[in-house]
Amino acid sequence: MSARREPDQTPPTDVSPTGAPPAQTSPDPRSQQGDRLTTAQGLRVDDTDHSLKAGPRGPVLLEDHHLREKITHFDHERIPERVVHARGAAAHGVFTAYGNASAITKAGFLATEGQETEVFTRFSTVVGSRGSADTVRDVRGFSTKFYTEEGTYDLVANVIPVFFIQDAIKFPDLIHAVKPHPDREIPQAQSAHDTFWDFASRHTETQHTTIWFMSGRGIPASYRTVEGFGVHTFRMENAEGKTSLVKIHWKPVAGVHSMVWEEAQLAQGADPDFHRRDLADAIEHGAFPEWELGLQVMPDSEDEMFMGIDLLDPTKLVPEELCPVQKVGRLVLNANPTNYFAETEQVAFHPGHLVPGIQVTNDPLLQGRLFSYLDTQITRLGGPNFAQLPINRTHAPVNDMLRDGMHQTAIHEGLGTYLPNTLAGGLPTASPAAPGVFVTLPKPVAGDKVRENPLSFGDHFTQPRMFWNSLSPIEQAHTAAAYVFELGKCYEQSVRDHQLRALAKIDADLCARVAAGLGVPVPDGESGDASPGAGEGLGAGDADGVTRTAAISEVKDDPGPIIGRVIGVFADDGSDEEELSVLRTALKAEQADLKVIASHLGTLGVQPVERTPVTARSIEFDAVVLADGLAASPLAAHPRTRSILEEAFRHGKAIVAWGDGVEVLDAYGIDTSAEGVLTDTELTPDLTQGLVRAVGLHRAWERLAALDAAGTQAW
């Protein structure tokens, strides 16, 4: 099948025989004309891939009119929903510092042991509109607003530690490529289309982030089980003035867990609000999601490198084997929003919302975000006074001398709206010597004004290779299958070929698997039009021979906690309600939730019935249990019961049965000898403990591997 073609519209030539632009007596009514990239004013542009910086490693310059025009226009493309991260869910909570960060930063909310800080955290997908589904394959946002005594601090994080691009000037291009095609406005909330993979295959710096969200990290099981990353390197300063370069992590107490692809697709149809419902329900039931805040602390060296890794490159991570994550505090989300619009929709994050002890670096992606986030709120929230909205209002005293503007709600008094003044008694004061003042650290800046990257930004494949090598075999199969699905949705063979060439530079076996899945040969040769500098061996990120890192795989040997997990129990009128009570008590001790599925609503004795086969679906359960007394019931004969069991088996979930519940498994061909399928003649403590352990491992990984090897796994 070939891509749909528009009627031929040959643009007029943009060059006269003399080489100058042709003269025009009146503007051409067509919005886009000519072959040369220009500004909105028609000025030809020499480079749209790099911000103007003071030297290759210097800060981005405010005079970069092209950067500002490009990002300003992008920020204001849509109103009122966010251009990106439109689909979100949020919760209130509290952050408690361990106190061991005082050697790293003087930020009070981190440095003081036992210091509690109110927070508001918003999770979100990136690509889809507000009405899209939660469980699409995507990178996700994980942003937290700390209402500290020193001012508001925003940690604007993602659930993947690296980003698609190295320079913010490319962000509009990235999002234009991944958003629905502009002619038909489809596909919604998906990267499985030509424009995204055309961009990704030709800008090979994207390959690291791309392989992360092609893995299970792109379809998390819940917001409660995502890891968070600050992505950029920040500079932290302690009370003695010593500085360090730091990467920020959120480690989920419940562990990192994902969906399998079929499960994610079922959720999109059965419950497109799956993640936001899961988060709200867990908090409502008292199973509060928790994360530990961790820091990777590295020397603030002159070259801003760490063991061969350029810390200003947002497409690179630092393996935890080289720099362990130091846990410095705990986040607990314990209250749902009262009003979605007033809180979740109107919350405004900005990486420039800093506190003393935390400062930015010259990372060119971060530098552009410092402009973009503030700029976009002005349109989205109707003017410059968005900080006065209750959800954005700081908990620290404010005397900013800002006045008027749209949606001004403060009533300002006095005449001293400037400094210095005498009419207001010289207040407010601004002095770098005052305690608690944010003072920008003096750092030398020098260099020619250039649009280019440092040489160390040039390696685009070593760390994606490290990621691939760090996955377990079943996770590799999952990831390869994701590439097959995504590229299989592309119409243009040239797009598939370019991406396969990029995969070949990551790993030959990965490329071969994806090509085989697509039914095409592995392309010969190398792509000749990848982005400049897409080489290898420059700031490679495999210092000290680290070619794999244990922090990447979610397959673990030891089970984690099962707080907030949901266990579906098939039971009916012939089942023993006392056994159900025993199981419910055991799961409640683990802070897991039991939901009874019966042939009718109401109760089984005193046990409430929450689901029937018609309203239940496998996606909402982390494990499925069949009680005794089912074999002759209408519940066992219901076709939806069979589909739930078969899906749970295919998805590697724990399946437990006792008594004649085992007969139901046998009747539907569920292999009771398979990993994660536990049976007994009666409900015993060993059976209950086995269920808790199996859920704590998240999936029966060997079962998934066996299904994949047999060709029966529905990736």
TrEMBL record:
<dbReference type="InterPro" id="IPR020835">
    <property type="entry name" value="Catalase_sf"/>
</dbReference>
<feature type="binding site" description="axial binding residue">
    <location>
        <position position="373"/>
    </location>
    <ligand>
        <name>heme</name>
    </ligand>
</feature>
<keyword id="KW-0376">Hydrogen peroxide</keyword>
<dbReference type="InterPro" id="IPR043156">
    <property type="entry name" value="Catalase_clade2_helical"/>
</dbReference>
<feature type="binding site">
    <location>
        <position position="369"/>
    </location>
    <ligand>
        <name>heme</name>
    </ligand>
</feature>
<dbReference type="InterPro" id="IPR024712">
    <property type="entry name" value="Catalase_clade2"/>
</dbReference>
<dbReference type="GO" id="GO:0005829">
    <property type="term" value="C:cytosol"/>
</dbReference>
<dbReference type="GO" id="GO:0004096">
    <property type="term" value="F:catalase activity"/>
</dbReference>
<feature type="compositionally biased region" description="Polar residues">
    <location>
        <begin position="23"/>
        <end position="41"/>
    </location>
</feature>
<comment type="similarity">
    <text>Belongs to the catalase family. HPII subfamily.</text>
</comment>
<feature type="domain" description="Catalase core">
    <location>
        <begin position="38"/>
        <end position="427"/>
    </location>
</feature>
<keyword id="KW-0349">Heme</keyword>
<feature type="binding site">
    <location>
        <position position="380"/>
    </location>
    <ligand>
        <name>heme</name>
    </ligand>
</feature>
<feature type="binding site">
    <location>
        <position position="171"/>
    </location>
    <ligand>
        <name>heme</name>
    </ligand>
</feature>
<dbReference type="GO" id="GO:0046872">
    <property type="term" value="F:metal ion binding"/>
</dbReference>
<keyword id="KW-0575">Peroxidase</keyword>
<protein>
    <recommendedName>
        <fullName>Catalase</fullName>
        <ecNumber>1.11.1.6</ecNumber>
    </recommendedName>
</protein>
<dbReference type="GO" id="GO:0006979">
    <property type="term" value="P:response to oxidative stress"/>
</dbReference>
<dbReference type="InterPro" id="IPR029062">
    <property type="entry name" value="Class_I_gatase-like"/>
</dbReference>
<dbReference type="InterPro" id="IPR018028">
    <property type="entry name" value="Catalase"/>
</dbReference>
<feature type="region of interest" description="Disordered">
    <location>
        <begin position="521"/>
        <end position="542"/>
    </location>
</feature>
<feature type="active site">
    <location>
        <position position="158"/>
    </location>
</feature>
<feature type="binding site">
    <location>
        <position position="122"/>
    </location>
    <ligand>
        <name>heme</name>
    </ligand>
</feature>
<keyword id="KW-0560">Oxidoreductase</keyword>
<feature type="active site">
    <location>
        <position position="85"/>
    </location>
</feature>
<keyword id="KW-0479">Metal-binding</keyword>
<keyword id="KW-0408">Iron</keyword>
<dbReference type="InterPro" id="IPR010582">
    <property type="entry name" value="Catalase_immune_responsive"/>
</dbReference>
<dbReference type="Pfam" id="PF18011">
    <property type="entry name" value="Catalase_C"/>
</dbReference>
<dbReference type="Pfam" id="PF00199">
    <property type="entry name" value="Catalase"/>
</dbReference>
<comment type="function">
    <text>Decomposes hydrogen peroxide into water and oxygen; serves to protect cells from the toxic effects of hydrogen peroxide.</text>
</comment>
<dbReference type="GO" id="GO:0020037">
    <property type="term" value="F:heme binding"/>
</dbReference>
<feature type="cross-link" description="3'-histidyl-3-tyrosine (His-Tyr)">
    <location>
        <begin position="350"/>
        <end position="373"/>
    </location>
</feature>
<dbReference type="InterPro" id="IPR024708">
    <property type="entry name" value="Catalase_AS"/>
</dbReference>
<dbReference type="InterPro" id="IPR041399">
    <property type="entry name" value="Catalase_large_C"/>
</dbReference>
<feature type="binding site">
    <location>
        <position position="82"/>
    </location>
    <ligand>
        <name>heme</name>
    </ligand>
</feature>
<feature type="region of interest" description="Disordered">
    <location>
        <begin position="1"/>
        <end position="58"/>
    </location>
</feature>
<dbReference type="InterPro" id="IPR002226">
    <property type="entry name" value="Catalase_haem_BS"/>
</dbReference>
<dbReference type="InterPro" id="IPR011614">
    <property type="entry name" value="Catalase_core"/>
</dbReference>
<dbReference type="Pfam" id="PF06628">
    <property type="entry name" value="Catalase-rel"/>
</dbReference>
<dbReference type="GO" id="GO:0042744">
    <property type="term" value="P:hydrogen peroxide catabolic process"/>
</dbReference>
